[in-house]
Amino acid sequence: MNPSTPDDNPPRRSHPADLVDETIRSLKQMAQAGCSGFDSAPASLETINRWGRPAPPQADPDRETLPDIRADLGDCRRCKLCNSRTTIVFGQGAEQARLVFVGEGPGAEEDRQGLAFVGAAGQLLTKIIQAMKMTREDVYICNIIKCRPPGNRNPQPDEIGACVPFLKRQLKSIQPEYICALGSFAARTLLDTDTPISRLRGRLHDYLGIPLLPTYHPAFLLRNPERKRDVWEDMKLLMGRMGIEY
Ligand code: URA
After folding, report:
1. Residue closest by Cα to atom 7 of ligand 1
2. CATH of the domain at 214
3. Given pLDDT bands bounded at 50, 70 and 90, which one contains residue 36?
4. What are the two backbone dihedrals, phi and then psi, of residue 122, each rounded to the nearest 5 degrees?
5. Is 105 close to ligand 1, i.e. is its CB under 6 Å away?
6. Cβ–ligand 1 contact at 107 (below 6 Å)
7. HSE on the CB side for 223, CA within 13 Å?
8. Considering the domain boundaries, does residue 74 fall inside one?
9. What is the pLDDT at residue 211?
10. What's the half-sphere exposure (Cβ side, CA atoms, 13 Å) at 205?
11. Is residue 130 part of a domain?
């Protein structure tokens, strides 16, 4: 008796997306070789391309937009930082970014310009984003708090309590695939933990169903350049998950 029956070795089944890729490739090759009598127009190939792939997420008409949230924030006076700030730093970038970077809070330059991460640490963050083969416009960049604490002191619990609900609404609106928490303050606030950043970094955690990667803050890297290697390892982890080759 042949011990290898067909049921023991079922034929390898291709994923529908593989079959679609193969079909498109074959149609293009046949058209280039001069074959005719079939439809290889770009619009038809795009229709084929959608077969077997998950439907794109439908716009949720009830989902708050970032401008809605910004409007609700208004000229915020919900905590004492409003007395010393120059500008509210809401956050900026793609409204449907796949990746959101969350830092601590605005520094002097951010307070002047009203934009997150535009000082020295921001320039390093720009380089990190570019090394990940993206631009600042591809991602969303924001902070745990939106107003600069005097002298760049650490944010206080009442300030965080007043501000974080807006960040959470921003994250809910953007629905990113990944969050990167820059530094101990962002990571510990979003993950609600006291664990040091050195023990949090290097692996994905969960923030309301969104994978969150803690890593060192760019300002820390400016003071400790030997840690850049760790951050690059963290970014490679994210790139791999995001399907970006490195
Ligand atoms: N540091 C932060 O955490 N955020 C900024 O926007 C700038 C510096």
Report:
1. 117
2. 3.40.470.10
3. confident
4. -65, -35
5. yes
6. yes
7. 4
8. no
9. 98
10. 22
11. yes
